[in-house]
Amino acid sequence: MSVINHQLSFSDVADAFLVHGSLQSPAFLDGRLAASLALHDLAADAWLNELCDALGVDQPHDQESAEVLLAWRRQSLEALAGEALNYEPLLPDEMFSLAERARGLQEWTLGFLEVLNDVDPERRQGWSAPLREALDDLEGLAAIDTELEESSENENDLFALTEHVRMAAMLLYTEQHPGKPQVEQVEEPH
């Protein structure tokens, strides 16, 4: 599979984890990835090293796995920095139960917050009030009950929570990268 023009899914990355003998969910590491890209412009080699450490290997199993793992970073960065504002956390999709999807969202949030916990409090104070509020909300989200019964109400609630983490990640990225993405075009006076 060529990952050059392929939109990676949760299952694609989970399959790459399986090649490395890992059954862990990619959601936690995707949360870490989003926060790291926003805060530190995480380089590709640093990301690959972090993944290898998490998977308990010295290097990717094969070239195809390395391509998937690097494409994951590239896909996230392009979505966070892109004008389309179409970043999506890498979470279990509709093929998974609502409880599994809720656990994925919780894991993503925990990974995201783990990176944020290392941010200097003085730096955090310089962030906008909407960003600080959105990130404070994530603390509560990390403690959600993930044993959800299948219902349209729970489905809608999970969608709203997922949208909240998506917006928090994009807000963090845009505040740390002024002018990226360029979402408004200012007309020059003639």
TrEMBL record:
Tree of life domain: Bacteria
Pfam families: UPF0149 (PF03695)
Annotated InterPro entries: YgfB-like, YgfB-like_sf
The organism's taxonomic lineage, starting at the top: Bacteria, Pseudomonadati, Pseudomonadota, Gammaproteobacteria, Oceanospirillales
Signal peptide interval: none
Protein name, entry field: UPF0149 family protein
Family: Belongs to the UPF0149 family.
